[in-house]
Design brief:
The protein is an alpha+beta fold. The chain has helices at 16-32, 49-54, 59-72, 89-101, 103-118, 127-136, 141-148, 151-164, 169-172, 211-221, 234-240, 247-254, 258-267; strands spanning 5-11, 36-42, 178-181, 184-187, 191-196, 202-205, 245-246, 272-275, 278-281. The two termini are 32 Å apart. The model has no long low-confidence stretch (mean pLDDT 97).
Length: 282
């Protein structure tokens, strides 16, 4: 069956809002499965640390922000103070390199980069961090490093960042959910552009959203789509997700609270992998 809609997902490996949207985007994949096709476009929030410094995003500003995310958002995050604010561009290039040379591992690499970054294992502009994430995702770190250096990857990455800095008219009409760059407005992370296959009708959901927004968007665009019911057990979620799942992701797919999900996971004998404020489970 051909997909009913195509989803362009604008994101960045180092954005905490994108990390905290993972449960909802995973839920969309669970609910609609092959009825949706997905394309991941890397925004490239900052190719050098100076980009953040010029905006006043110093460690003194960001360290309290990390604590806020750990306390008030669902995904696990190590809020220990960080010595600097690293750039995200190298991590984004790594994902583009995997998309081009090892597409089956590209999503896993993006996930691994996020897990290691938000666990406080390093910075996304460090070769050692990219190598660590590559190994986690089942990629050869040396091969990935070679791919990243290629002109083909640079060209595609430049196209990703260009697309991310030219939002659709529908997104531009939601200006508060966009951000500035020297040439105008850009997508924030995550942003979804959803196009219906049958007639090209498009709906835009730029920036961090609540689950009910995604529910309404897809219900209105694809009322005929089959919707898979929520998972019946935590075990069912762990068997389906292709990587260690966060407590919040299990809760989202089960339609229960994080406390209830944690109780189910423990009762099911799942193994907890603690990361700061919460955990991943296998």
């Amino acid at each position: 069956m051909s997909p009913l809609a195509h989803v362009v997902h604008y994101t960045d490996a180092g954005c905490p809002f994108a990390w905290n949207s993972e449960p909802m985007l995973l839920h969309l994949q669970w609910r609609y499965g092959g009825q949706l096709s997905w394309e991941t476009v890397m925004v490239g929030l900052a190719d050098t640390p100076e980009v953040y410094a010029e905006k006043g995003m110093t460690p003194e500003v960001m360290n309290p922000a990390w604590l806020d995310f750990a306390e008030n958002y669902p995904m696990p995050l190590n809020a220990e103070p960080r010595e600097r604010v690293g750039a995200t561009g190298l991590g984004c290039r790594a994902v583009v390199a995997a998309q081009l040379h090892a597409p089956a591992q590209a999503d896993g690499l993006l996930r691994a980069l996020r897990v290691h970054f938000f666990a406080g294992d390093g910075y996304l502009d460090e070769d050692a961090m990219i190598a660590k994430a590559a190994a986690t995702a089942g990629l050869d770190p040396a091969a990935l490093a070679s791919w990243i250096a290629g002109d083909d990857v640079s060209s595609i990455y430049d196209d990703h960042t260009r697309r991310a800095r030219h939002p659709s008219p529908e997104a531009l009409a939601q200006d508060a959910r966009l951000a500035s760059w020297p040439g105008g407005r850009r997508y924030t992370c995550p942003s979804l552009e959803v196009t219906r296959t049958a007639d090209g009708a498009r709906l835009s959901a730029p920036g961090y959203q609540l689950w009910m927004t995604y529910e309404m968007l897809f219900a209105n665009l694809l009322p005929e789509a089959e919707q898979r019911p929520d998972a019946e057990t935590a075990r069912e979620v762990l068997d389906w997700v292709p990587y260690p799942a966060a407590t919040a992701e299990v809760a989202q797919l089960r339609g229960i609270t994080r406390d209830q999900a944690r109780e189910e996971l423990v009762a099911a004998g799942a193994t907890e992998h603690r990361i700061g404020s919460d955990a991943l489970w296998t």
